[in-house]
Amino acid sequence: MFSTLPVSTRIGLVALCAATFTAITSELAPVGLLLDMARAFNISAGRAGLAVSAYALIVTVAAVPLTVLTARVERKRLLLIALSGYVVSNLISAFAPTFGLVCFGRAIGGGAHALLMSMVSAYAAHLVPKKLTGRAISFVFGGASMGGVLGVPGTAAISQLAGWRVALVVVAALAAVLTVLIAVCLPPVIKPAGRPSGPYKVPRESVRAFAWVISANALFFIAHNVVYTYIAPLLMAHGLPETSVSVALLFIGVFSLSGLWASGLMVDRWPRAGVLASGMAISLGIALLGGQFMPAWGGVGVAALWCAGYASIIPFMMSGAIRARATTADTAGAAINSTSNLGILLGSALGGQLLAVYGVSILVPVALGVCALSMLVILLSGNAFPAHLGEHEDEEAAEQVCAERGPLMT
Questions:
Q1: Residues 106, 289, 245: CA angle, nearest 5 degrees
Q2: Any idea where the Major facilitator superfamily (MFS) profile domain is (predicted)?
Q3: What does the pLDDT look like over 29-68, one tens digit per residue?
């Protein structure tokens, strides 16, 4: 895909891909460690879900402001600061004597996440020619998908073998090694295109389309995380042994890659049909998982269908936010990052409350209701998710956004 690019640029793209892998592994590790953490601090699984919520809260609040405030900070330096934040975050959580300190460590990780995940798409785009912008961003965010595929079940497996604290130390070590490698190998962006001079008024239609996209994004993340944060007890309610949870999460993660493949076929041609098909896959998988007579590994299978639909949502939302042309690419990425984590925060918190009061059976109908609302937003969104895109429309939009994005270095 990038065979014509210099070796240093290819190494840089791989480094950014590894950075998103580390980011998502750090963010979602508590999903696989939830039960062990709950037992360690003698708390409920619902309360242990706050380890996810604390992280998401900081990203939700800080993503856009931090992106704006650090717009003139050299990107490589900022990336190294963010990765160092992951090291500190996981070490604090790993050695925390109380659950409150675990959440404090997770909050530090949320700040690092707010920086890193908002900048990597623009960094990748500035490493490559404009015609390769989309491919570069897709490749870099492939690391985020692999974080869900390998990171969550990997940390769950380490937790079963050596304990959840050791699992977090391993994640911290991964971030530390990556920090050193990026300091040595990642090329800085030397001279990106500047921002056009003169005032620029954003059309009202662009603002409206952007609002539809981020609203749909938040709702899909809420629907997903109401259930996914507590997927371990949900699968165990269908008879899956606790010792098989990490294997089940690995299978679900690997199968979810098919969703990314499917979205790649449609995101540049039929955004509306693709995002609605993704929503239907999510709804069908969650609905089947709520069936009373679903066997243990049957539940794993339908959870894999749901997570494949969820994985395919992300490219549609990112491309839709950029295509709206309501703001710069950095800020669009930060807004998607912020609303994604708002969905994680609200979904995990809502799921935890429902789990504590009503039990695991209530999670599925609530998630289905929110998912239906998100698809209604898609249907009402007009041009935010066009029925069809012309052959060069996305490329032209990407080039315009690249021109408007402004310098990555002072």
A1: 50
A2: 11-386
A3: 877 777 788 888 887 776 777 777 777 778 778 778 887 7
Positive/negative CA dihedral, 316, 319, 322, 325 = negative
State the Cα–Cα distance between residues 68 and 62, nearest whole angstrom.
10
Return the residue matching tokens 């304990």.
Answer: 163
Other CB atoms within 10 A of residue 27 CB: 28
- For the stretch 170-196, pLDDT in tens is 999 999 999 998 888 877 765 444 444
Assess contact for 322 and 401: CB atoms under 8 A.
yes
Structure tokens given for 351: 């799921």
Helical packing angle, 99-127 and 329-358, nearest 10°: 150
User: What is the separation, in whole angstroms, between the first and last Cα of the chain?
Assistant: 31
Q: Write the CB contacts of 236 (distance below 8 Å, at least 6 apart in sequence).
A: 242, 245
HSE toward the beta carbon, residue 352, CA cutoff 13 A? 22
DSSP 151: I
User: pTM above the 0.85 mark?
Assistant: no
The 3-state secondary structure of the chain, one letter per residue: CCCCCCHHHHHHHHHHHHHHHHHHHHHHHHHHHHHHHHHHHCCCHHHHCHHHHHHHHHHHHHHHHHHHHCCCCCHHHHHHHHHHHHHHHHHHHHCCCCHHHHHHHHHHHHHHHHHHHHHHHHHHHHHCCHHHHHHHHHHHHHHHHHHHHHHHHHHHHHHHHHCHHHHHHHHHHHHHHHHHHHHHHCCCCCCCCCCCCCCCCCCHHHHHHHHHHHHHHHHHHHHHHHHHCCHHHHHHHCCCCHHHHHHHHHHHHHHHHHHHHHHHHHCCCCHHHHHHHHHHHHHHHHHHHCCCCCCHHHHHHHHHHHHHHHHHHHHHHHHHHHHCCCCCHHHHHHHHHHHHHHHHHHHHHHHHHHHHHHCHHHHHHHHHHHHHHHHHHHHHCHHHCCCCCCCCHHHHHHHHHHHHCCCCCC
